[in-house]
Write a structure and sequence with these properties.
The complex is a heterodimer of chains A (219) and B (345).
Chain A lengths: L2 E5 L3 H12 L3 E5 L7 H8 L4 E2 L2 H7 L2 E4 L18 E4 L5 H4 L12 H7 L4 E4 L6 H7 L10 E6 L2 H14 L2 E6 L20 H21 L1
Parallel strand pairs in A: 1-2, 1-4, 2-3, 4-5, 5-6, 7-8
Antiparallel strand pairs in A: 6-7
Chain B lengths: L1 E6 L15 H17 L4 E4 L12 H9 L6 E4 L2 E2 L5 H14 L4 E6 L6 H4 L7 H17 L3 E3 L7 E4 L12 E5 L3 H10 L3 E4 L8 H13 L9 E6 L1 E2 L3 H16 L13 H9 L4 E2 L1 H15 L3 E5 L7 H27 L2
Parallel strand pairs in B: 1-2, 1-13, 2-3, 3-5, 4-5, 5-8, 8-9, 9-10, 10-13, 11-12
Antiparallel strand pairs in B: 6-7
Helix pairs in contact in B: 1-11, 2-3, 3-5, 6-7, 10-11
The chains are: A alpha/beta (219), B alpha/beta (345).
């Protein structure tokens, strides 16, 4: 049994908490700051999950999923996540995060997350579907209508760990490549926001990669 | 059961037109929409606040005051007032004014907002996003519920025996909270015993847990959940035939969702997602289809108000007006009859 930690208890975090407990993982969830109303929220949204402070989630979890606004990653307990696999499920949304200059040129969020957590093994995943799709489309392995989630990371062991987690949550893992290739399924791409089979997701990511390579050759 | 119309006043340019979108035209369109809703016997008309180049309504209460003069019965609400950017004293004065000029038809729906552009505009720190809203909401409630308010907080100078003049015409000006899917927003409203409008487009079953959470929070706050109003709002389009309406609406909807902050920004809504949302009860189709979609929300969530957002994405006036007429004449009577029957023991 894996202990899954989730930092962020909003729309995405509470949905992932439910998927994680449904998969049988021990699941620890932190909101912002002190516990507050989080135990009440989890009692309905993911009753088998445990509310904790972020620092305790980071310390106790085997794998940590980041589900907080990108603008708040500076508040993460980096030391407690040292050596751990950390799933970056974030995207840059200037409309809700406010304008963050370093992402304005379309840069992927994961390298910045990795710089914030230099001792962790950061993997991009669970970032290209909305919480509606995550909740609606989770299916057991082998289901005919199973959908896929893209994964990008530099550490192969961590990528395999996240692939197993994604599979357990109800989605086919599609390993895309290096961490900075997470932008191939980022906002604005054909893979983003659309629930797809593994085959179709791979096809769209490959098409995006080929189109960027073509641009750079021409450029 | 109350049925209404909401508009956000988005300003999209019709690519088939040579001239750029005209803000005066958009306002005429919004006022005509409110008049049509009022004449059709719909219950609520809401306008949402934005501070962006692609939306025309930064001050809903001003536009609602103009609408008050050309409508008779319909409730006039903001949807939402992005409260964090404003002084609750001024907000309450403005809606008290609206209440008097409209003969007691004013209502405030407050929310944190889906966009954060008001933060730099009004000199607020985004790190205080939730704390500012929380403090200002509590102050707004005190201004409504108490004749004289002595108060201090972090985001506004203190008040010493402050009074609002005039008090609203209604004994208790309705204040609702607009929520997206954030669980903590639902909990806050429940603890305060405030009615909520849930904004979502498809998959109403995903809000079952949120309604449950809302009711548990209300109980914890000492409020009887059965006394709390509950609304849902989302995109809607009614046409004469189901397939015709769905084909007709798609290009406009796709273009509308091609906007900053949308998962479909930069490319429009993929057809496969449109089909998935339709299958998940996006209320777009014939009158019977839309009746079924709204009744599904009534049955699953127990809502007693539905707000339909129809006028988006440069949808031409003839399509919007036909949709509103079908809503008022063919959808609303059936919903009212069905819900009245359900209420009778």
């Amino acid at each position: 049994m894996t202990t899954v930690g989730i930092i962020g208890a909003g729309k995405l975090g509470s949905t992932l908490a439910r998927l994680s407990t449904d998969a049988g993982h021990r699941t620890l969830v932190a909101g912002s700051g002190e516990l507050g109303t989080l135990p009440l929220i989890l009692s309905v949204m993911a009753p088998a999950a445990t509310a904790m402070r972020a620092i305790d989630v980071a310390r106790e979890a085997d794998i940590v999923i980041l589900a907080l606004p990108l603008g708040r990653i500076g508040e993460l307990p980096a030391a407690q996540m040292s050596g751990k696999t950390v799933v970056d499920a974030l995207n840059y949304w200037p409309q809700t995060d406010g304008v963050i200059p370093e992402f304005e040129d379309g840069a992927a969020s994961s390298p910045a997350v990795a710089r914030t957590l230099p001792e962790s093994r950061v993997v991009k995943a669970l970032s290209h579907l909305g919480y509606h799709e995550l909740q609606d489309d989770a299916r057991p392995a082998g289901a005919a209508d199973r959908r896929a989630i893209a994964i990008a990371g530099d550490d192969l062991d961590s990528v395999a760990e996240v692939a197993a987690l994604v599979d357990s949550l109800g989605f086919d893992p599609v390993v895309v490549g290096r961490l900075d290739e997470g932008s191939l399924f980022g906002p604005g791409t054909d893979a983003f926001g659309v629930s797809l089979t593994a085959e179709e997701l791979s096809r769209r990511v490959d098409a995006r990669r080929a189109s960027l390579a073509g641009d750079s050759r021409r450029g | 059961m109350e049925l209404g119309i909401s508009s956000l006043g988005d300003l999209r340019h019709d690519p088939s037109e040579q001239t750029p979108a005209d803000i005066r035209d958009r306002y005429r369109y919004i006022v005509d929409l409110a008049v049509l809703a009022d004449q059709g016997g719909l219950d609520v008309f809401t306008l949402g606040e934005h501070h962006r180049p692609d939306y025309v309504i930064p001050a809903p209460e001003v536009a609602l005051a103009a609408i008050a003069g050309v409508t008779k019965n319909i409730t006039l609400a903001s949807g939402v007032t992005v409260l964090s950017g404003h002084d609750p004293v001024r907000v309450f004065e403005q809606f008290s004014t609206l209440d008097h000029v409209s003969g007691g038809r004013a209502e405030i729906i407050v929310g944190r907002g889906a966009f954060v552009e008001s933060f730099p505009l009004f000199g607020l720190d985004l790190n205080d996003y939730d704390a500012i809203f929380d403090e200002k909401l509590r102050l707004l409630l005190r201004l409504r519920d108490e004749e004289s308010v002595t108060w201090s907080g972090n985001y506004r100078p203190p008040l010493h025996g402050a009074q609002i003049h005039p008090r609203p015409l209604q004994d208790r000006l309705p204040i609702w909270v607009g929520v997206g899917g954030t669980p903590a927003s639902v909990v806050r409203a429940g603890l305060l015993g405030l009615p909520i409008t849930m904004g979502f487009f498809a998959s109403p079953e995903q809000f079952v847990s949120r309604v449950d959470l809302y009711h548990r929070a209300a109980e914890q706050g000492g409020h009887d959940p059965s006394t709390l109003r509950l609304g849902a709002g989302g995109h809607m389009f009614v046409g004469k035939t189901s397939q015709g309406a769905r084909e007709q609406f798609y290009p406009y909807y796709s273009r509308y969702l091609d906007q900053p902050g949308s998962p479909f920004a930069g490319r429009g809504m993929p057809r496969e997602m449109y089909e998935a949302w339709l299958a998940g009860s996006l209320p777009v189709g014939s009158p019977q289809q839309v009746i079924d979609d709204i009744m599904l929300r009534v049955e699953l969530l127990g809502i007693d108000r539905f707000l339909a957002h129809i006028d988006m994405g440069y949808l031409p006036w003839n399509m919007v007006s036909e949709s509103v007429e079908l809503y008022a004449t063919e959808v609303a009577p059936v919903i009212r009859r069905e819900t009245a029957r359900a209420m009778t023991p």
